[in-house]
Amino acid sequence: MTQFTDFGLAQPVLKALEEAGYHTPTPIQSQAIRPAMEGRDLCGIAQTGTGKTAAFALPILHRLSLEKRHAPRRGCRVLVLSPTRELANQIAESFSDYGKHLPLTNTVVFGGVTIGRQERALAPGVDILVATPGRLIDLVDRRSLTLEGVEILVLDEADQMLDLGFIHALKRIVKMLPAKRQSLFFSATMPKNIAGLADQYLRDPVQVAVTPVATTAERVEQQVIFAHTGAKQALLAHILRDPKIERVLVFTRTKHGADRVVRGLDKVGIAASAIHGNKSQPQRERALAAFKDGQCRVLVATDIAARGIDVEAVSHVVNFDLPNVPESYVHRIGRTARAGADGLAISFCNDEEKAYLRDIERITRQRIPVGAFPEGFTPPTRQEAAEIAQAEERRPDTRGQRPGGGRPGQRPGARPGQGRPFGGNRGAEPGRGPGRPDGARQPDTRNARPQGERPSNGPRPERAAGDRPRQPTGNRPRGGGGGNGGNEGRAIGWLDRSPRS
Questions:
Q1: Kind and range of the H or E element at 439?
Q2: Distance between CA atoms of 217 and 345, rounded to whole angstroms?
Q3: N or C: which end of the chain has fewer CB within 10 A?
């Protein structure tokens, strides 16, 4: 198929594609759309950034437009499972864009946000539900969702779904689905566990593989720079000072490592944001929105962002840490050179990571060219780097503190223990001194003595019956709150106990 019009898609879908400027399908779309439109089960293997979302979204919208029926109450007709919140959002947006001329409803649910709003959105039923496994099971357990009416199941990025430990959740979800359904599996790689999953849940599937397993994007220029651990931060800062780098994704292996990189860049005047599993959903959304809008040109991420973040014009990808899973390298560098553009992927490699580099070259079947230090860069010695790292560890993290010092959430000038969000002095109130060791509040004795009399450590004077101590004006801290009306102490809110998604 050379044009989307050759597939026989419903006219409203073709109209949306025309308005979006899409005319020629990608290889995965050319091979997957036709059998999916016919209701066949399908297992599609294609590297990230090749258009897999449209490969299943377009035939699904076509089928729903022909089979007009209402979604079951507290249920859905199409269930799309995604490993991450970012990918789930992207998929839901694609369904909205491609189906904007169809009278279909879709919603997205994932952890890290209030579940009540999601329950209200599902109450009347939706045609298309995009979900992460953990939050989906939460909704089922709360009897806010039923899967008995699912007609089509889509498992996107199946290999990462298993890497993140969702195999038991997937098995439980599949047991709740009708036996008679269409199933579409899409993955960037085809390890043995994915092949076994496909054999178990797909019926006579069409196999579609448009690229060899774990190959890198052709238009991505790759290089590796050998540098010891202590030189990586300075090397990254030197590279990012190049004005030609318009938008760059930096990948680290750990969440704390991502935060350290952001702090290091901030110290040298380079603005950056971090996105990883320890960030709340609003924080992740703000960081991603700023990166997409160009307000922040550097986004530091863990592998949670290696798939599912479709950001245009990412000119560079920097692997600050090489991944210990070689397939992750393919997904990371696939964030650049999208939609026919060129891109550069630079990887830093220390002595301990050389084994990871060999695994990456083995699975991608290519040697990554070795690059030299950029012109003008003098790496710090190991001793200098160690001293910098030790100073960084000793330096207190003052981000988020109020002017005047103190802990975050503490009133300026307050003594230790006053207004503390958590800890032994939870009951302390601003201006009253530290609380008792057992957390109880100090009695308010300011109005219980004659003016000018020094406070006594003796028992509190007896009050007449019905006489109550006068309460201070303003909001009292609640829930172990800090100096700002107690709201700091309640900032955690609802905690998602499902697997991270």
A1: none
A2: 11
A3: N
If you write DSSP's letter for every residue of 333-388 in order, what string do you get?
HTTSS-TT--EEEEEEE-GGGHHHHHHHHHHHTSPPPBPPPPTT--PPPHHHHHHH
pLDDT digits (tens, 9 = 90+) for 317-338: 999 999 988 878 887 887 786 6
Give the right CATH number for 220-393 from 3.100.10.20, 3.30.70.1290, 3.10.290.10, 3.40.50.300.
3.40.50.300
Range in 172-186, 263-277, 330-344, 445-459 the model is least confident about: 445-459
Residue 327 has a CB neighbour count (10 Å cut-off) of 21
Question: Could you state, in order of their start, the residue ranges of all structural domains in the chain?
Answer: 4-209, 220-393
pLDDT of the residue at 396: 53
* Contact (CB, 8 A) for 51 and 80: no
Kind plus residue range of the DSSP H or E element containing 61? helix 52-66
Torsion angle (degrees, nearest 10) of CA 159, 162, 163, 164: 130
What whole-number distance in Å separates Cα of residue 500 and Cα of residue 72? 28
φ, ψ for residue 210, nearest 5 deg? -95, -10
| 88: CB partners within 8 A, 6+ apart | 80, 82, 108, 109, 110, 130, 131, 132, 308
Other Cβ atoms within 10 Å of 402 Cβ, number: 18
- Mean pLDDT of the residues in the chain: 78
- Quote the pLDDT of residue 64: 95
3-state DSSP call for residue 154?
strand
Give the rounded distance of the alpha carbon of 116 from its chain centre: 21
Work out the burial of residue 128: count CB atoms within 10 Å of its CB; fewer than 13 is exposed, 13-18 middle, 19 or more buried: buried
Residue 226 binned pLDDT confidence (cut-offs 50, 70, 90): very high
Token couple for 163: 């890497």
DSSP assignment string, 157-187: SHHHHHHTT-HHHHHHHHHTS-SS-EEEEEE
Give the confidence band of 423 by pLDDT, cuts at 50, 70, 90: very low
* Choice among 81-95, 127-141, 330-344, 484-498 with the minimum mean pLDDT: 484-498
Query: One-letter amino acid identity for 436?
Result: R
Q: pTM of the predicted model, to two decimals?
A: 0.61
* The one-letter amino acid at 440: A
What CATH class is the domain 4-209? alpha beta
